[in-house]
Amino acid sequence: MHISSTKNGDLIASVKTLSAVQTEVKSINRIALSVDCVIFGFDENKLKVLLIRSDLKKFHEKWSLLGDLVDPKEELDAAANRILKQRTGLDDVYLEQVRTFGGINRHPAGRVVTVAYYSLINIQHHKLKILDNELHWHDVNDITELAFDHKQILDISYEQLQRRVQEHPLAFSLLPKKFSLRELQNLYEAILDTKMDRRNFRKKFFAMDFLIDLNQMEQDVPHRPGKLYNFNYNKYEKKKKKWIGIDF
Amino acid sequence: MHISSTKNGDLIASVKTLSAVQTEVKSINRIALSVDCVIFGFDENKLKVLLIRSDLKKFHEKWSLLGDLVDPKEELDAAANRILKQRTGLDDVYLEQVRTFGGINRHPAGRVVTVAYYSLINIQHHKLKILDNELHWHDVNDITELAFDHKQILDISYEQLQRRVQEHPLAFSLLPKKFSLRELQNLYEAILDTKMDRRNFRKKFFAMDFLIDLNQMEQDVPHRPGKLYNFNYNKYEKKKKKWIGIDF
DNA sequence: ATTTAATGTGTAAAATAAACACATTATTGG
DNA sequence: CCAATAATGTGTTTATTTTACACATTAAAT
To answer: Of A182, A224, B18, B70, which residue is most buried, by most CB within 10 angstroms?
Structure first.
């Protein structure tokens, strides 16, 4: 016995049927599912995204996100991690689902629904992996178009990154383990596309308690070197605000 | 010619193949896709969610979200809207994707990846539709378990609602067109599960410019009636903050 | 030794959030 | 009709957070 979705029929029936019997979904109702990864990096004080060249004729010379089909026996997160591992060689990577894009004609190969993830990696840590010139780190703010609906996916992922980075200490994944406050500020300025006051920025981060002063200095900088810090995630605890601000 | 995903193989190959040729994805790589709707309502000063009784043996007596399979020719948003229309009779409803849940064993019928949506509706507007006692409005805070992974979906949707409601004026969808400030505050207190100061709350909302004083009073209340207001979405414009707050 | 280009630091003003109390109004019940 | 009740409606003060702003210090380069 098979289960079918009833697009215009009675929902109760189909829900009950789907729930009621432990059986397979009809093949005709299945859809190709892919994962696309928006891999952010940070280099030369710019926020970058890792893209692969599309050689599809229709998208000639366009770049696209890194994606692959999800295996029916594979977790979604596992699929995203697999792509990251294959692409960057990195295993322990900040990874977060953005949302799912399901436009009917978004992919020329037919109906392919894709789950977007973004991840934050330190470019230095896998620099050697990109020998392939099909892959390239692009400045996020220079990208005007991509293959398929990937520009839209990038835009929404970038917006989500900007929001999340202000609420959670994720951005540190983009930096080397030891970093100066200037590097940290450059990172935030790149992500949020804004300039900040240095004194206020430092005040803010010192007030939080998870920057560890390493008592080391930057090396090989052509000016007075800054102190180096470490990020200690263990010290981070989400604040609980008394007043729930309503702000729109 | 078909395209296959190569779970452990070379990603470049599979991506290129998927991009390169306009052809169908192999049937074996397709996955059942469903949409589950977390339909929020507001009644008796409580935040409610609309649930359907699951009659699956394994989930005997458990409640579940309203969902259905996505038709391969159907947009994701369209599928969610279809469920809402069938369930509540309402067409113009606030609807937002939450995220996708793809656990391998989340559904007893096999691999079913589900895209969660939440929506906000005014319970009064479709009260007559729920004659079916398979459907019931539950207090969100009373729910301890649901069928499948629906409790997790509910929790994450609820968290997203709480976040969004503080940044965008969505909550008005849950109220009648005319409402008093007390009703508005009760709503926010229910959603955010907190108590607020009445004077500060009023100050906050009057400072924004989209509450229209209707010069009407509440009727049939057993106390001094409050003024009635209207929400004017047109007057809402997202503020642009100078300083990008980093707050975690 | 001088120049250069950055780091490092404190304070005051402005804006926002939070705490707080009393008079007013319509309804209800005696 | 009058008193009691239960809500609405309103302003000010304090605390906290955000913002703006300037000068001395340090190491490297010349």
So the answer is: B70
- Could you tell me the maximum CA-CA distance found in chain B, to the nearest angstrom? 74
Question: Nucleotides of chain D within 7 Å of a protein C-beta?
Answer: 5-12, 18-22, 25-29
List all residues 6 or more positions away from A57 whose beta carbon is below 8 Å from its beta carbon: none
* ipTM score: 0.89
Total-model pTM? 0.89
**In chain A, what residues touch B103 (CB-CB under 8 Å)?**
75
**Which nucleotide's C1' sits nearest to the alpha carbon of B199?**
D10
Backbone angles phi, psi at B216, to 5 degrees: -125, 160
State whether the Cα torsion A66-A72-A75-A81 is positive or negative: negative
Report the alpha-carbon distance of residue B118 to residue A89 in Å, rounded: 37
Q: Please state the φ and ψ torsions of residue B200, each to the nearest 5 degrees.
A: -70, -35
Is the Cβ atom of A204 within 7 Å of strand C at any atom?
A: no
Task: Give the per-residue pLDDT at B28.
Answer: 86
Nearest to A33 among B27, B33, B194 (CB): B33
CA B118 to chain A, closest CA, distance in angstroms equals 13
Give the C-alpha separation, B228 to B211, whole Å: 10
3-state secondary structure A108-162: CCCCEEEEEEEEECCHHHHHHHCCCCCEEEEEHHHCCCCCCCHHHHHHHHHHHHH
Contact, B180 CB vs strand D, < 7 Å: yes
Q: A105 beta carbon < 7 A from strand D?
A: no
Look at residue B132 and give its three-state secondary structure: coil
In chain B, whose CA is at the least distance from the CA of A162? B244
Q: Is the shortest CB-to-strand distance from B197 to strand C under 7 Å? A: yes
Mind listing the pLDDT tens digit for each residue in B71-117? Answer: 999 999 999 999 999 888 888 899 999 999 999 999 998 999 999 99
C-beta within 7 A of nucleic chain D, residues 204-233 of B? 222-227
Closest to B14 (Cβ–Cβ): which among A21, A54, A68?
Answer: A68
Locate B59 and state its tokens: 């989930």
Q: Note the pLDDT tens digit of each residue in B161-216.
A: 999 999 999 999 999 999 999 999 999 999 999 999 999 999 999 998 889 999 99
